[in-house]
Amino acid sequence: MAEGVRKDEEYSGTKPVEERHRIDEIRLDGWMRENVEGYQGPLTVLQFKGGQSNPTYRLDTPQRSYVMRRKPFGKLLPSAHAVDREFRVIAALGKQGFPVAKAYALCTDDAVIGAAFYIMSMEEGRVFWDPLLPSQPAEARRAIFTSKIETLAKLHQYEPDKIGLGDFGKPGNYFARQVDRWTKQYRASETQHIPEMEHLIEWLPRTVPEQQRVSIVHGDYRLDNMIFHATEPRVLAVLDWELSTLGDPMADFTYLLMQWTMPGLQGADFKALNIPTMEEAAEIYCKATGRDGIADLNWYFSYNLFRLAGITQGIAGRIRDGTAASAKAMESAKRTVPLSKASWEYAQKAGAV
C-alpha cells in the first residue's frame, strides 16, 4: 500500500516496469493529453518498488512527474482496490487545504490500460520509515511527531457532509461494520484454521463500543505513510488512502497509538530521544480535537490487530490466487497468526473469556 514514493527499505525508489505489470504507454499518454490539465509528453514510465496492493507507477515528463495508481489485473476480492474511492477522498481533501497529493484525473475505463487508475502529483520530500527518527536531531523529532498527530486531528475535524463526502461510508456503527467486513475478507482468503481468529470473530461484534462521532478515517495512518517537507518538520502529503471511509475517529487514533506497542517505539527511551510517550501523543490529539480523554484502549487494540490479521490474510489469499503484487507479500502473509494471537491477548485484557 503506497501512494506516491516511499523511501524505506521496501519501497526505496523505482525500477523498470515488471513484465506482468506492463501497460500500453502510448494509450496512457494519449489519455493523459486529453484528461490531465497541463500534461505534455513524452512520457517515461517506471514502477515503484513494493506495493502489495495497488501497483503504483512513476510517470516522468520533461515538465513534471506524476504518480499513477491502478487496480491489479486478475481476480479481486469484493470492495478491494477501490482506486476511485482513493481518488475521490484526496480530491475532496485537497480542496480543503489538507496535505495530500494533487488529484488530477480518474479513469474507470478498463480499455485504456487494462484496469481502472488515477493520476496524482508526485510529491517530493522525506519519508521516515524508522519511528525512532535516527537521522533527525532531537529537537526535530518531537516536532515531526506533533505534526503527524495534529494532521490526523485536522482530518478528523472535517464534517464529511460539508466537503462532499457525506456518502463516503455507510451509516451505523463503524466498528461493527469493520469487524463484519474483515471477517468476510478473512473467510474469503482463509488458508488455515486459527483458533484465536475464531474467538475474535465471535467476541468482537458483541462488544463494540458506542460511536460518539463520524469523521473521515484514513485506515492506515502511520509515519511511513506520509511525506514530510524536505527541510521542515511538517507533513507535506498523507499517502495511501485505500482503506479510507467514514467512521469512528477512535479507529484511526487508537491505530496510531498502537505504534507505541510495536517494534520500533516499544521500550524506547522517549525522554532521551525527545519523542512523545503514548500518553503525551494522546494529549496532543485530545488538545487538537477538544476531546476530554480516551477510554480503555484494550478493546481498540484488539480490534486493530484483528483488522491487520484480516489484511495480511487477504494478502495470503492473493498469493494463493496469483494476484499479489510484491515479493514482500509472502512476509506479510506470515504475520496473520502472530497478529491473531496478540489481538486475542488484548481481548482477554478487555474482559473476553
**Which blocks of ≥5 consecutive residues have pLDDT under 50?**
1-11
Mean pLDDT figure:
92
Question: Hey, roughly how much beta strand do the residues contain?
Answer: 5-15%
Widest sheet: strand order?
1-2-3-4-6-5
Biggest β-sheet description: 6 strands, antiparallel
How many individual helices?
Answer: 11
How would you classify the helix and strand content by structural class? alpha+beta
Write the layout of secondary structure elements.
Elements: E1 14-15, H1 25-35, E2 44-48, E3 56-60, E4 65-70, H2 83-95, E5 103-107, E6 117-121, H3 138-157, H4 174-189, H5 195-203, E7 215-217, E8 226-228, E9 235-238, E10 245-247, H6 249-258, H7 270-273, H8 278-289, H9 298-321, H10 329-333, H11 336-349
Antiparallel strand pairs: 1-2, 2-3, 3-4, 4-6, 5-6, 7-10, 8-9
Helix pairs in contact: 3-8, 4-9, 5-11, 9-11
Describe the protein's architecture and organization.
The chain is α+β, with helices and mostly antiparallel strands. It has eleven helices and ten strands. It has a six-stranded antiparallel beta sheet, sandwiched between helices. Helix 3 crosses helix 8 (278-289), helix 4 packs parallel to helix 9 (298-321) and helix 9 runs antiparallel to helix 11. The model is unreliable at 1-11 (pLDDT under 50).
Considering the chains and any ligands shown, give keywords for the structure:
11 helices, 6-stranded antiparallel beta sheet, disordered N terminus, single chain, 353 residues, alpha+beta, two-stranded antiparallel ribbon
